[in-house]
Amino acid sequence: MIRLADVTFRYEDMEMYFDAVFTAASFTAIIGPSGGGKSTLLNLIAGFEVPQSGRVLIGTQDVTALPPDQRPVNMIFQDNNVFGHLDVWTNVALGISPRLALSAEDRERIDTALADVGLVSFKQRKPDELSGGERQRVAVARALVRDRPVLLLDEPFAALGPALRRDMLDLVTAMQKARRLTVVMVSHQPEDAQYAASHTAYLEAGRIVALRPTAELFAATDIPGLAAYLGDWRSIGQ
């Protein structure tokens, strides 16, 4: 469970306020206009931003004052943060130990994670030998070996075509269900939310306007700003 309790944050001239609960083992998509605070919301959960007031809780733990590396959170970005001079196996291993101090059990976890994302035969390749989807699979494998209960996704598949995005969403959904992860994903693609997320939040101007089961939210007619944001997609995409 993730709880943002009366969290306030100011970015430039925008005052943001978040008070929401993301249920344990759920998959929530965050949609809304650009510049509305979606990435900031993830950064507050991850610890890259600190609220002016309020609390961030993960499970029963108040993590508001904890730095990112001490929070039970993994985060995957659009820029997958793989290191070009290292092979796939080593990039994944960094999720366990930045100094690559690895036990036999650690090495087995890395091999298992690579098998889970379909990259066993690529483990000695460098990132520039991989496709965009394969590089994102490396980032997912690195998250797998870290084994933390919360996974945050900040538009990690935005640069991929529709078919590859579906493949990556299938991979993340399978991982989420198998490990009972709490996943929060920012997306500018409503169809991705509809395809993968159990719940969807509509965020605008630094506020979560609505957070509902995905099918219910997309069918709603009482959410201010949602119809204008979705535009023709509501009739085409559903």
Report on the architecture of this protein.
The two termini are 29 Å apart. α3 crosses α4 and α4 runs parallel beside α5. This protein has two domains: 1-72 and 150-238, Rossmann fold, CATH 3.40.50; 74-147, no CATH class. The protein is α/β, with parallel strands linked by helices and 238 residues long. It contains nine helices and ten strands. It is globular and about 55 Å long.
Give a quick rundown of the structure.
It contains nine helices and ten strands. It is an alpha/beta fold and 238 residues long.
List the helices and strands and how they pair.
Elements: E1 2-11, E2 14-22, E3 27-31, H1 38-46, E4 53-58, E5 61-62, E6 73-77, H2 88-93, H3 104-116, H4 132-146, E7 150-154, H5 162-179, E8 182-186, H6 190-196, E9 199-204, E10 207-213, H7 214-219, H8 226-230, H9 233-237
Parallel strand pairs: 3-8, 3-9, 6-7, 7-8
Antiparallel strand pairs: 1-2, 1-4, 4-5, 9-10
Q: How many angstroms does the end-to-end distance come to?
A: 29 Å
Number of strands: 10
- Supply Rg: 18 Å
Cross-sheet strand order for the largest sheet: 6-7-8-3-9-10
Characteristic key phrases:
238 residues, alpha/beta, Rossmann fold, 2 domains, six-stranded mixed beta sheet, four-stranded antiparallel beta sheet, 35% helix, globular
